[in-house]
Amino acid sequence: MNIENTKAQMRKGVLEFCILSVLKEKDAYTSEILDTLKDAKLLVVEGTIYPLLTRLKNDGLLNYRWEESTSGPPRKYYGLTEIGQTFLRELDGTWTELSNAVNLITNQK
C-alpha cells in the first residue's frame, strides 16, 4: 500500500473546505490562496487549484473580479458568494462533527 497516495487523498478531501475558509475573511487571488495553504503545510500545486476554483465558481460558491496590479498583469480575486458562505457554515459544522468522531476513535486506549 502506498502511504503517499493515502495522504494525498486525505488532503484532497479537505481542500475545498480549506479554500472556502481562506476566502471567508477577505477576497484573495490564487497566489495568496496557495501561500495561505502552504503556510499551513497543505501543499497544493497550481494545476490542482485552478480547476477547483473554476468548479466552485460554476457551482455558485465563488465569484471573482479582476483588479489591476502594479507588478504585472491584472489579478483575478475570488470571494465567497452568499451561497458560498452558507455552504461554508454547513461544512464547518460537518468538519467539527467529523473531527470529533475521528479524534474519539483514534485516541481510544
Short summary:
The chain is of the alpha+beta class. It has 4 helices and 3 strands. Residues 19-90 form the Transcription regulator PadR N-terminal domain.
Q: Your description of this structure?
A:
The chain is an alpha+beta fold and 109 residues long. Helices cover 62% and strands 17% of the residues. It contains 4 helices and 3 strands. It has helices at residues 3-22, 30-39, 46-58, 82-106, and strands spanning 28-29, 62-69, 72-80. A hairpin with a 2-residue loop joins strand 2 and strand 3. This is PadR family transcriptional regulator. InterPro entries: Metal_resp_DNA-bind_regulator, Tscrpt_reg_PadR_N, WH-like_DNA-bd_sf, WH_DNA-bd_sf.
List its salient traits.
Arc Repressor Mutant, subunit A, single chain, alpha+beta, 3 strands, 4 helices, globular, 109 residues, 3-stranded antiparallel beta sheet
Strand and helix layout:
Blueprint: H1 3-22, E1 28-29, H2 30-39, H3 46-58, E2 62-69, E3 72-80, H4 82-106
Antiparallel strand pairs: 1-3, 2-3
